[in-house]
Amino acid sequence: MRFPKLAEGSEHLVLFDGATSEVVKITLPRTYGDYYEIVADRISQFDCTPAEYLLRMHWWEELFSTAPAPIGMTESGQIVSRQRFIQGDPLPPQETVDQFLVEAGAVAVRQSCWLWKKVEIDSRVEIWIGDARSDNFVSAAGEIIPIDIRIWGVPVPAKSQ
Amino acid sequence: MPKFKQEIFLDQQTIRSFAGVRGRVKAAVAKQPRSVSLSEALAQSQKFRAVIVTAK
To answer: Does residue A160 fall inside a structural domain?
Structure first.
């Protein structure tokens, strides 16, 4: 099977399957995305494990839909997924993307660094959303659609009784 | 710091709180054309890259 290449980013090789109008994403060797933490008031970046990469897909689908669906792994450990190609404005204004996240109930951790989180009362985990740059969203039908976002969870310590 | 530990599943409350934006995203995706040609996909991809290069 051969597909034309659409793009290559820091995480994926992105191919296009014209028969299904889907993109096929293949993680780059030994790369499964990143997550971020605030350490000593600075943003630090850490590598995700394959399991965390798959969780990211799962949570993305549950919270926003449009997530790539993992379909397998190459012999060298690259995760392959499929995602519907979203046609639209590929670079919506950052303000519009930020408003979309606000409407999702997220609050900016570092807005200038595209880092957000969602905190629920009594939840066991905070949802963090990273790399929420406008080029990771598409504007279509008057809506903002995430096409490449990073989501991870940070456990909330249990409250003392 | 380990992040996920045993916290694989999201609270239902969290999922419900995203229901509004999720519904809007799904509705917008439902309006998408069923078929996208390679040239259309490439054009969008090229535009994306051009904008990024310009932005730098």
So the answer is: no
